[in-house]
Amino acid sequence: MTDRYEAVVVGGGIAGSSVAYHLAREGVETLLADRRDEGRATDAGAGILSPATTSRDNEPWVEFAVEAVGYYDELVAALEREQDGPHGYAERGVLSVAVNDDEVEAFERTMELIDGRRERFGIPEPGSLRELDADEARARFPPLADVERALYYEDAARVDGRTFESALRRAGESHGLTEREASVSELVLTGGDGDDDDGAGSRGVDGVVLDSGERIDAENVVLAGGAWSESFGSQLGVEIPVEPQRGQIVHLDVDADTDGWPIVSPFRGHYMVSWDDGRVAAGATREAGSGFVPRTTVEGLREVFDEVLRVAPGLADASLRASRVGLRPLTPDGLPVLGAVPDVAGAYLCTGHGPTGLQLGPYSGKVVADIVRGETPESFGADLGRFAVDRF
Question: Which co-factors does it depend on (predicted)?
Answer without folding.
Answer: FAD
